[in-house]
Every structure is written in C-alpha cells, then in structure tokens.
Queue: 2 jobs
Job 1
Amino acid sequence: MIDLALSDEHRQLAATIRDFAARELAPGVPEADRSATPDPELFAKLASLGLPGICYPQRYGGAGLDWIALGLACEELEYVDASCRTALSVHAGLCATGIYQWGTEEQRQRLLRPLAEGRRQGCFGLTEPDAGSDVQALRTQAVREGDAYRLRGQKVWISMGDFADYLLVFATTDPARGGHGMSAFLVERALAGPGLRTEPMKGKYGLRASDTAVVYLDDALVPAANRIGEEGEGFKVAMSCLDSGRFCVASGAAGTVRACLDMSVAYARQRHVQGQEIGRLQLVQQMIAGMSRDYDIARLLWLRAGWLKNSGQRSSRESALAKWVNTEAARRAADDALQVHGATGFSEECPAARYLRNSRATLIYEGTRELQTVLAAEYALGYRSDRPVRRALPPWPDEEPAVAAGDVAVAASG
Ligand SMILES: Cc1cc2nc3c(=O)[nH]c(=O)nc-3n(C[C@H](O)[C@H](O)[C@H](O)COP(=O)(O)OP(=O)(O)OC[C@H]3O[C@@H](n4cnc5c(N)ncnc54)[C@H](O)[C@@H]3O)c2cc1C
C-alpha cells in the first residue's frame, strides 16, 4: 500500500537543510542572479551537508538515505533558488543515477563513489544544437580505438558543465541505427585531454545563478571502461536518468510554490489598502488559495513518484506527470506572487520576478511542457506503457542505513 507519510528522520533532515540553505545559500543568491555569476563554492557547500550522495547506498559512498530524502533536499534548496536545486539534481538525479542504475559493480565503486562522496561533481550532456526534444537526432560520435573512445561533437545548455569533473555524455557508436546506436560515456575531465573544452553560455533569461555550458568534444578521450551500459543502450540510459531528473525538478518546483505562497502571505498580511490588509480582498485570496492548493498537489505528486522509486518500481509516468504539473504550478505561483506584491513585485527588491524567470527554465529542460503533455496523453490513450527496464533501480533500503537521516545532515554540517 502506498505510504506517503514522512518519518521523523525525514522531517529532521528537511529542517536541517532548510536552516542551512537560509543561512549559507540564500544571502548570496540575489547578487549571483544579478551578476549572473554562479557560486563556485556551491557544490562544496552541498557536499558539506552530505547531499551529493544522499540517496545512494553507503557501500558506494552515499548517505544511505532514500529518494524521498533527495526530494526533500530539492524542495528545500529550490525554496531558496532553483539554481541551488539544479546543481544537486543534475549531479545526483541525472549523472549519478546513470552509473548507479546502469554501471557495473566496478564502475559503481570507481565512478559513483567519488560522486556520492562529493569529491567529484557531475553533469549530464544530452542536448545538442540540433537535438533537444528529438534526442535521437544527436550527432556526437564515439569512435572506438583500442581501449578508448574518441568523442567528437558539441553539447549545449549543459547545467554545471563548466564545474563538472565527470560529464555523462551521450554519443552515437552506430549512426546507421539512430536511437539504437546511441551509447553513454562518463567523460572524466582529467583524462579527456585537450579535446574536451567547456565554456559558459551568457545572457540567460533565468537561472542566472546556475552555470550553463557549451561542451566541445574534439577527439575527447574516454576509456572504454567508462562506457555506461552496452553499446546501443545509451537511449535507455538517458531516459532512465531523466526519470530521476524529472523527479528532482518536480520536487524542486514544490519549493518554488511554497516560497511564493510564503512571501505572498507575508506581504498580504502587512500591505494595507483602503484601511485593510490586502489579504482580506477576495481576488488576492484567490491567488493565495491557488498557491496553497498547488503546493499540496505538487507535494503529493512528487512524494508518490519518490515512493515508487523507493520500492524499486518504474516511475516514468509518475515522474513526468509530477514534473509537468509542478513546473506549471511553480510558474503560476511566481506570476501570482509578483501580482500580489503590485509594483514592488516588479522590482529587484522582491524575489518574485527571479522565481518567475527561473520557473520558465523548468518548463523547458528535462522534457519541455509540450513533451510532458504528449507523454501524459499517450499514457492515457494506451499508446505508451512502462515495461520493466533491463536495469531497474534497486528497491530501497538497498542496505540498512547505519545512521539516521537527521544525523547525517547534522553531523556533516557541524
Ligand atoms: C537553463 C537550461 C538548462 C539546461 N540544462 C541541460 C542539461 O544539463 N543537460 C542537457 O542535456 N540539456 C539541458 N538543457 C537543454 C534542454 O533539455 C532542452 O532545451 C530541451 O530538451 C528542449 O530542446 P530544444 O531547446 O532544442 O527545443 P526543441 O526541441 O527545438 O523544441 C522547440 C519547441 O517545439 C516543441 N516540441 C518539440 N518536440 C515536440 C513534440 N514532439 N510535440 C510537441 N511539441 C514539441 C517544444 O516543446 C518547444 O516548444 C537545458 C536547457 C535550459 C534552458
């Protein structure tokens, strides 16, 4: 039976991350956004709390907690700013999941462990200039030469690409086979040679406190031992990574809705017009009621997807649905929060405009709003169903956690 109740450990973990994010991250976000300068210490700060490996077993260097713990972390980080959540979700949700789910035991020890321990930062390189929603159109090629592959191509819009030590990159090993010819590679910056170069993309509309990179692959070297899954399994690897990535985006979006609700309630209780709090005005109440409704829906949807992941079941439909509904809710909440604040909301003094700009990114990445709509329709119409994948996520607990959730965070932050 589905059980969405949070344990005391989960609640304690959320409170610890909330306090940490308010103290350590929030003060720097407005300036990072204004100057479009990502915090170079962000990942180290997240690592100081044990977050990079929060949902991975301790035998792979993780904290031994579960997917709900990762969801709570995403929600609390995005409550402060979506850029903080993006750093965690591309690392833990997109990059590390691929190795955990599709890597061999040797790869989990050699490649997942440094990611989970926060000693290496990961990113996810799928999108290309001519291959976004149409993933199967990708052109980056991987050519085998003895014990290595040479990667040639270009990736764009890669979150944290300039900071990442490990880049999970998708390339074709057999262009004639389309999607069936795609393979996944963990590119180690330290081993890739001069053929790997990254550079920041400037002038973004939102998520300005997050790094977004172009990745140039001009004969970048990858040991054959770093191919994740078999040749030709890259599309399946990418899609299962996106299941976890969308879960992170969905749980993060709940944080935006809650942040917008909290700032709107606070303002509506202190701003007076015609001698009364604007919170007494029905049309203002309508906006606040919508945020309150959407927060509960958003929270329930990501919890359901997390519960499925914990029990080792496929969550493709539920993660995609949560991502679609929650990111739309976040955009609506940010727009309404700005409106509740009147002209104040239109200035940099109020964070609502930043939340609105950030929320637009979440309607685009990890499957656009339109793609999620198509997926929802196809599931409903029976054109699509979730078959078991060759490498399912292990049910949680994959091992007994040696420490409670609260202890991990508290010990690491102390
Ligand atoms: C801030 C940011 C960070 C990102 N981070 C990453 C990252 O870390 N790694 C990574 O690999 N990528 C990343 N991306 C890229 C992102 O995943 C792509 O932008 C996204 O998949 C859409 O691709 P596209 O931009 O090429 O749009 P297109 O695919 O060209 O889509 C254009 C329009 O057509 C619509 N459309 C396309 N196909 C369909 C369809 N079948 N049915 C209906 N409508 C359709 C789309 O919804 C959209 O409105 C990031 C993007 C942004 C903005």
Job 2
Amino acid sequence: MSVYLDFNATTPVREEVLDEMLPWLRSGFGNPSSSHYLGRAAREAMEHARSRVADAVGCEPREVIFTSGGTEANNLFIKGLASSLPPSRISISSIEHPSIAKPARSLTRSGWSLHAISVDENGLLDMDDAGNAFSEGGIASIMFANNECGVVQDIRRIAEMAKSGRTWMHTDAVQAFGKIPLDFKALGVHAMSLSAHKIYGPKGAGALIVDGRLPMMPILEGGGQESGLRSGTENVAAIAGFGAAAEIAVSRMAALTEAVASLNGKLASALAAMGAVLFSRNVPALPNTLYFAFEGLDGGTLVTEMDRAGFSVASGSACSSGATEPSSTLLAMGVNPDLARGAVRVSLGEGVVDEQVSAFIAALKSTISRLSGMMRRLQA
Ligand SMILES: Cc1ncc(COP(=O)(O)O)c(C=O)c1O
C-alpha cells in the first residue's frame, strides 16, 4: 500500500459521507423533479445538502447552484456571466487553474480583452496591476488558494478593489474550502467555486455560489433545474455526499489544520536541510501544501521513483501531470524553467501520521542521493 500524500489532487470519501450517499443510490432513486413521494424525498435530500453547503461557507441556500464540480462551476461563472454582458475586460491572476484560464482565454475570440494580473516570486497578486486591471470594469476571477504552491490571496481586499472598479468578482475556492475558513458574505465576492472531492466528498459534485444580483445565463439549457442556471437531472447521491462532507469539513477544520501544519513544518525543515528550493514559503499559504524542487533533478522522475518507493506525490499540478512543460504557475512566479521542471508537490491530509512523513523523508533522501550520483556519473 502506498502512502498517499496528494490530497490537493483528490481526497478519499469519508465513511460518514458514503453512508449518507448510499440510500440515494439504492431505494431513494427518485428524480428530484418528480412530484410523487420518491421525487419529493430526493428533492428534500438535495435541499438539505444545499443548506449544509450554505452554512459551511456563509451564504444563503438559494445562492448555491450545484454543478458537477469545480471545473463546471468555474466555466459557468465565466461563460454564463460573459454571455449576458457586452464584451469588455476579463481579469484573472496569472496562476489560475486551467478551468479558469482556458475559458477566460476563449472569451478573447468574442471580443473580450484578457488581462492576466502578475504575481510576485511567491505567487502573491500584484495589487497595483490588479487595481489597473479592475479600473476597466468587466469580470474578474482570482483564486483563493493555489493548488500547486498553496499561496493564499487576500480575497477580501481584492474584492473591495474589484467593487470600486465596478468589476464582477469571482474566486475559485476549490483548494481553500475545508482548509481555511470561508465566509462568502464577509469576503464580498459575487461568486465562488467549490468542489466536493477536495473535502473528502465524492467526485462529480461541486457548486457555484452566486450572488442573486449577478446577471448570469446558463451554459447548460434544458429542464431548468438549479434556478435555471444548470439544467440536467441532479446527481442526488453525490450532492447529498457533498452536503455531508461540507458540514464535517468545517467542524474538523481546526483540528486538521493543526495536525497537517505541524507535519508540514517538519517536512519543510527536512527538505531545506537536504538543499531543496521551497516555493511560496513565508507567505500566507495552505497549511497542508509543500512545493519544492532540487536543482538539476527532474520532478517527473522524482515522482516516479517515490511512487516505486511507496509514496504518492505530484509533479506540478495533478491536472497537468504527464506534460513535460514546466508548471505555468512557477513560470508566472519567475522561477527559472530548469528549476521549475524539478517541481514536486506534497499535500497532506487527514490520517497522515508522523511516522509516514519520517519514512517519506528517509526515502526521499536516499532517492535524491541515488539520482544525484547517477547525474554526476553521466556528466563525468
Ligand atoms: C484550484 C482548482 N480549481 C478547480 C479545480 C477543478 O475542480 P474539479 O476537479 O472538481 O473539476 C481544481 C482541481 O484540481 C483546483 O485545484
């Protein structure tokens, strides 16, 4: 069995969550749009989940639009809002997930101008550049926490700036949810994306939290489910699981943060002692995430060797694993492409214990010295 240290890619479904899902896959199979008993029961389960998600992130239940996950929520925000506005400016950070960066780029084909706001060497947003970007109005999307380096932006301040520039502001909170407290109202954003499978819920469920003032259009049209913004018969079991996972995530967040932050600190010290370059240190960042590289060593090779040694970690972001290009996030942070090719991400989560982190450190040490030895022999 491998030691799983890739919780930013996905998380296992909690047993309690699975227990709440299974009835809706067995006897409770009704269509929530049906008016008979089975339909009403399914609808009630969905509305219960909607209230739980709303409570978890500080919004009204009617502001929760269930989607198939973070990717769809991000696409719904960008495409759904852009299609109801005259083309103007879309501003995103230069380190967004592809599910924001790609639809934002697509808008340029229909007359929108894209501004990718720069970040500093730690991934923090350049506030002057953001101010310039927002001064033209339009749409903005700035991620709350980055999936690779874990940097956390000051979304409340950024939302204030966006509002003073009369810009509709969204945040992709997929990685932040369950790791740092979220309060939709207090943040002052107009929309926010969430995903269930990053918080020990099932894959295939997520939500776009939408302020009712947003002039949104659907991207999926049909039966008019989810206040007309997301047609299609709902994935009731996954949505019920999402509701349960959201509630549990909030109740266990403080304990989980404490546990992973201490293991992360231990790992960071060991990596620094081994000569690793650590990215996004000493800035606000996710407590469970460590992103690092060893000069001259390929990240993909390290991940493969660590997998052989029984540890699951990621090179670059999980979604772009397999690609040989260096991480665009690191390039945007001004990291040298050769060093960026070495990037490895460790992301901790529930159930990871001290002995596993010690074993990982020991295995990494011997792998690094073996690979460095091979490199030296090749260069000789
Ligand atoms: C920051 C961020 N946004 C969006 C997504 C996409 O979410 P989903 O996998 O639910 O489509 C991910 C997943 O890796 C992510 O890390």
